[in-house]
Amino acid sequence: MQLELDLTPGIAVAEAIIADIDRNRDGSLSLDEQRAYGSLVLGALTLEVDGTPFGARLGATSFPEPEAMRRGEGTIRIQSAGSLPRLTVGPHQLMFRNRHHPDRSVYLANALVPGSDEVAVTAQHRDRDQTELTIDYVLRAAPARSTAAWLLGSIAAAMGLSVLLMRPLRSLR
Fold it and tell me: With CB atoms 3.0 to 4.6 Å apart as the test, which of 74, 107, 153, 155 could cross-link to 130 if both were Cys?
């Protein structure tokens, strides 16, 4: 499964996010600091398929300059991938929970339309704050030439999750 997170710090939270990333306080965001922050964000996620937890490994990251974040511009992009357990044909459920800065974040999470007829998203359930998304989906029988890796790739194509850090959550209540 591939997971893509887009975090857009708004002006109200930019300094706090920059402080989370720039651990040595030198004003720049080094590659090591960016990777550490990406790992911090991933560590705040819970991922489960059919009730079985699985993890995601940090992949590529992309960070805007601190000044762009201070202006409310620029998006932090974090890519990751995880290995799903072997799945059978039939109904399944994927649960995504994000606990990264719930006190100052606004979340939006969605599944993308599958790129294959072998995967069908049948429902998406969100909690009020969209910190949790549960996706019901069905795996259909693949043609004999397909491999398990291709099928897992289809699931990855079905998943696209975004997190927007735009304004304090308190302001929405």
Answer: 107
Give the chain's end-to-end CA distance (angstroms, integer).
Answer: 33
Q: Distances in Å between the alpha carbon of 144 and those of 47, 141, 150?
A: 30, 9, 12
| Domain range list for the chain | 2-167
Structure tokens at 122: 């049948």
Indicate yes or no: pTM above 0.85: no
Spatial contact of 98 and 163, defined as CB atoms under 8 Å apart: yes
pLDDT digits (tens, 9 = 90+) for 6-54: 999 999 999 999 999 999 999 999 999 999 999 999 999 999 999 999 9
Per-residue confidence (pLDDT) for residue 59, from 0 to 100? 96
Count the Cβ atoms, other than its own, within 10 Å of residue 47.
21
Placement of tokens 């043609």 in the chain = 143
| SS3 state at 10 | coil
